[in-house]
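Hi L., both proteins are below.
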Amino acid sequence: MRRRTAIRSLLASTAGIGVASPLTAWANSNMELAPLKGNIRHSVCSWTYDFLSLEELCQVVKKIGFSAIDLVAPSGFKTLQANGIDCSMSYTAGKISLTEGWNRIENHDWLVKDFLDAIPVVAEAGYKNLICFTGNRNGMDDETGLKNCVQGLKRIMGAAEKNGITIQLELFNSKVDHKDYMADRSDWGVALCKRLGSSNFKLLYDIYHMQISEGDVIRTIRDNHEYFGHYHTAGVPGRHEIDENQELFYPAIMRAIHQTGYQGYVAQEFISEKKTNTEKIASLKKAIQICDI
């Protein structure tokens, strides 16, 4: 499953609000971790555990021992709040598209409306981050894309700053998962941050995607951490578990992130290869252990 499919499911439902039958997996006392060290603030992307309702995922998260879920729309905020779970990255309540974004002027009016509607809602809920996307190139050059993104994003940055919301642009690879996506390199994203000149605009540095696009992950984090406001994980290749079967060594990456003084969240976004739901939840527990340096 990919994020596009998950977004379609999200828009067609109410983000899994409501209590389903409890799963044996999160009733199992072995799900509990030793107390977390506190150096990394952990989260999990909701779409990667879509076999659970949002209520169930909240229970799993609490059972493992952390307290945040990524990529939740406003329709799910009440469920998070009822469970004492933070929304570490929010969607708007409007159209969510990874391919149609801020790099095209014709998209600006509907994007501005969606974000100006969402910013006060996210702030009122007590959350801090709101995700955005450049969209695909469709033949557009880098410079035009930068100019267009600056032009559109400036229309919402005042509201974001006033409400204490950070707009986070996600970086994707365009080699494997998101063909033709514009923000497929960290240097392009950093250039956009510099042109906007707002501390309320950051990059969501997806470690999986940027390993595929450019590698040199730890050096990039050290050199550009002031522009990185959020992190996602997954194993390379395949976007599966972050264990010893893939090429990234996440403990070292987490140490590099921590050494920059980062105070935000790191969200697990791998797609488990395990066969059963119980095993998939156990993979989340293991991933938290690996990243808890």
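That was the first. Here is the second:
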Amino acid sequence: MRVKQKTPYKRILLKLSGEALLGKQFTGVDPEIANYIADEIKSLSDIGVQLGIVIGGGNIFRGVEASSKGMDRTTADYMGMLATVINSLALQTALEERGLPTRVQSSIEMREIAEPFIQRRAIRHLEKGRIVIFAGGTGNPYFSTDTAAALRAVEIRADVIMKATKVEGVYNADPIKDKKAVMFNKVTYIDVLTKNLKVMDATAISLCRDNLLPIIVFNMQKKGNIRKAICGHKIGTYVGE
């Protein structure tokens, strides 16, 4: 049952990596992980939060890696965009199995399986309580899904970007490789850029800074973390002014 709860954020953009769907597999989508993510998302819908989602395609195809091995960069990036559509449809299925009304909007037109991205329509879906998954990146090569997330967040007038990761937040070094790495509770956009903190790529960070759009980087693998962060608990790292 949906029970509206007062939260610091009314409308959010959740950024998921394609690798988040891998689970224990080497490639593709692990249904168990997709179901776990859908359950976590349902906990937000239950409190009346409006939710847009951007998901990467790295579990299927990574355009940058392919181009580094000799493939034409434009072609490789378009292949990566199509991978995000596959992931979006997989996540849509998991969400709808939980009774959550969901729409996939693609920046690359494919009307048989997704709506074209239209800003006003996306906002209207959100206002009606539908989850909107934005597929196909920006629709242009040479831009990452981080940039797509920042762009869509600005377009739908989101209050915050929630960047899901497999670590607790933003560190001064890779916490998986360096056990002495220190986590930041809060960093500025400039710190992210000048210290190369790898939160999101520079284009995405600059877009967020120009539009004063905060980012919360948190561990999605801990059950309940995303709801706690949305409800104002100190979870992860806050990126802002």
